[in-house]
């Protein structure tokens, strides 16, 4: 995979004081999410909003309760619309640059929960064009292969086939392009540079791409023949696209798309988000259980250099990827809170947490792989044009 510097796009465009970077193409350093809320101008998820969700769905999803989804724009407005009888679409996506890892699954699992609770239709975009353009050494064949493989993961999440349509940019472009040109016409190069950090060395495909990711925000209004609210669940790295899109929505006569933003699932290495470009620190849905075991056993933790020191000083759960994996995927809230206390007080050793993680993650990938296999039979049902797509 080429480095961001090779691609010349958005280098550190949203860098905050140089200690972390969050762009759609690069997440580096220890992200300060509160600062991102300020910098990106989003809203924190408040207790009031959680109460509203609870009153409508009967529960608060653990990813909301635990603050994994931590920020939003107009989520409250979308819920008001729903209460008044106006249905909203969900829209999320994937850039097929590699196999899917557990980090990607988080927003998709949350999207499924929203689909189930609010009975929403979902558009799922695969930006094979973006990933081909971005990766200097990446071939069309590669993005095509990953597109198919990633679609199996998306279907394996369990979305409702009657309410879910997958859009592959290079296949279904005729549905996006008319909207994308409307968006593109309203955005100057100077705005695109400011939002995405494009430079003179960015290839012009990348510069022209953002309106294609904006297009599904407005496609529901065209499908439904009336202005239709859209909610986008995704990690916060995608936010530049939505800032740009919200800016033109009014002028195009559409509602601004709403967002709910998640944090990043960390990689099993020392810092940064889980990323396909660091495969040894990511658990892929296609990993064999032995590989999962190996990755978990070599994971970085918040532990002390020796057992004696750990017993004496305790460890740093909050800076430990193993802790976060367990918290988001496999522990109940109660178990996780207890784990944190025991870890901090030196009553829990890293080996024990790693063993718990391996115990959860191994059957998880085995089960997920079975669902991916079954997905092969129903791909066409999910595609926007209901036509099969070749592996
Ligand atoms: P991509 O393929 O980089 O990421 C897919 C989704 O996964 C989120 N994500 C993560 N979430 C938690 N932890 C991580 N370590 C992690 N890494 C990635 C991303 O925020 C995203 O939600 N351009 C997009 C594709 C796209 C899209 C969309 C995404 C097109 N339309 C609408 C979200 C919503 C991309 O390359 O995503």
TrEMBL record:
GO terms for biological process: tryptophanyl-tRNA aminoacylation. GO terms for cellular component: cytoplasm. This is Tryptophan--tRNA ligase. It comes from the Archaea. InterPro entries: aa-tRNA-synth_I_CS, aa-tRNA-synth_Ic, Rossmann-like_a/b/a_fold, Trp-tRNA-ligase. Keywords: Aminoacyl-tRNA synthetase, ATP-binding, Cytoplasm, Ligase, Nucleotide-binding, Protein biosynthesis. Belongs to the class-I aminoacyl-tRNA synthetase family. Residues 12-21 have a biased composition (Polar residues). Residues 1-22 are annotated as: Disordered. GO terms for molecular function: ATP binding; tryptophan-tRNA ligase activity. It comes from Candidatus Nitrososphaera evergladensis SR1. Its EC number is 6.1.1.2. The keyword Protein biosynthesis applies.
């Amino acid at each position: 995979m080429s480095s961001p510097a090779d691609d010349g796009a958005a280098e550190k465009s949203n860098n905050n004081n140089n200690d972390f970077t969050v762009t759609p193409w690069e997440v580096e350093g220890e992200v300060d999410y509160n600062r991102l809320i300020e910098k990106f101008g989003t809203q924190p998820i408040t207790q009031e909003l959680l109460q509203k969700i609870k009153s409508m769905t009967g529960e608060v999803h653990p990813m909301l309760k635990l603050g994994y989804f931590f920020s939003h724009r107009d989520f409250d407005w979308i819920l008001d619309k729903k209460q008044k009888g106006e249905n909203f679409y969900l829209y999320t996506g994937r850039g097929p640059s590699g196999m899917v890892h557990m980090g990607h699954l988080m927003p998709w699992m949350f999207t499924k929960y929203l689909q189930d609770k609010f009975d929403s239709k979902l558009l799922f975009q695969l930006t094979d064009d973006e990933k081909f353009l971005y990766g200097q050494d990446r071939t069309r064949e590669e993005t095509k292969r990953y597109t198919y493989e990633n679609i199996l993961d998306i279907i394996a999440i369990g979305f409702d086939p009657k309410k879910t349509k997958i859009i592959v940019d290079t296949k279904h472009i005729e549905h996006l392009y008319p909207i994308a040109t409307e968006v593109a016409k309203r955005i100057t190069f100077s705005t695109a540079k400011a939002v995405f950090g494009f430079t003179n060395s960015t290839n012009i495909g990348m510069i022209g791409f953002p309106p294609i990711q904006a297009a599904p925000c407005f496609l529901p209004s065209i499908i439904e023949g009336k202005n239709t609210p859209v909610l986008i669940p995704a990690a916060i790295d995608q936010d530049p696209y939505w800032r740009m899109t919200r800016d033109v929505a009014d002028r195009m006569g559409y509602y601004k798309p709403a967002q709910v933003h998640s944090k990043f699932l960390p990689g099993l290495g020392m810092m940064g988000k889980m990323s396909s470009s660091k495969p040894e620190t990511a658990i892929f849905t296609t990993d064999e259980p032995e590989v999962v075991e190996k990755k978990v056993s070599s994971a970085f933790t918040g532990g002390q250099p020796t057992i004696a020191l750990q017993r004496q000083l305790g460890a740093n759960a909050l800076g430990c990827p193993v802790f976060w994996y367990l918290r988001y995927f496999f522990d109940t809230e109660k178990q996780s809170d207890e784990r944190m206390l025991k870890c901090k007080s030196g009553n829990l050793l890293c080996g024990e947490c790693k063993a718990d993680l391996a115990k959860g993650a191994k059957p998880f990938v085995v089960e997920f792989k079975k669902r991916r296999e079954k997905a092969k039979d129903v791909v066409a049902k999910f595609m926007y044009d209901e036509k099969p797509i070749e592996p």
